[in-house]
Specification:
The chain is built from three helices and five strands. The protein is an alpha+beta fold and about 180 residues long. The relative contact order is 0.20.
């Protein structure tokens, strides 16, 4: 994907702004890696797990009438995993140490998710083809595969830290 290099650059800048981040990954909502900076963590597995967690979280938000899912936070004994909407069809997943300032994590994660979403949404749609039917000898018809849209990125706040107004809509937090 042509957008991978600028997205990877954004992930590196995000990790520089929040030193307690131990990894960052941008993936499609169906679990395909777009770009990553995840030392020591398999990006394909993390993308797949994020997609599964988002699926359950979207259902919880819908079942409880909380609106569209915007973010997910999981707290473990050694740190956090946070997932943020990144445009119409992608998600930003961040791994952070337990000592991270969670407010700063949310602020930077939301902003980076909005920027990454803009990069991904502006890229031309990827056209994949369906495989040819087996055994009929005819060439396969070219059919585009659509990416599902389940997340909405909140608008990036231009306010400086400490003066940000709370976002509207759903904010889902799951802690272990």
């Amino acid at each position: 994907m042509a957008v991978a290099a600028p997205v990877r650059d954004e992930l590196h800048r995000l990790r520089a702004r929040v030193p307690q981040l131990t990894g960052a990954l941008a993936a499609s909502v169906d679990g395909l890696v777009i770009a990553h900076d995840t030392p020591g963590v398999e990006p394909e597995g993390l993308a797949a797990l994020t997609a599964a967690a988002l699926g359950v979280s979207v259902r919880i938000a819908d079942a409880t009438g909380q609106g569209e899912l915007r973010e997910l936070l999981v707290r473990g004994v050694r740190g956090y995993v946070a997932a943020y909407a990144a445009g119409r069809s992608a998600v930003l997943t961040l791994l952070a140490e337990d000592r991270v300032n969670v407010g700063r994590l949310h602020l930077e994660g939301r902003r980076a998710g909005a920027r990454i979403g803009e990069l991904i949404d502006a890229a031309p749609p990827r056209q994949e083809t369906a495989p040819a039917p087996a055994g009929n000898g005819r060439p396969a018809r070219q059919r585009p595969v659509r990416t599902p849209r389940v997340l909405r990125t909140p608008p990036a706040s231009p306010d400086p830290p400490g003066t940000q107004t709370p976002p509207t809509g759903m904010s889902t937090t799951m802690e272990s």
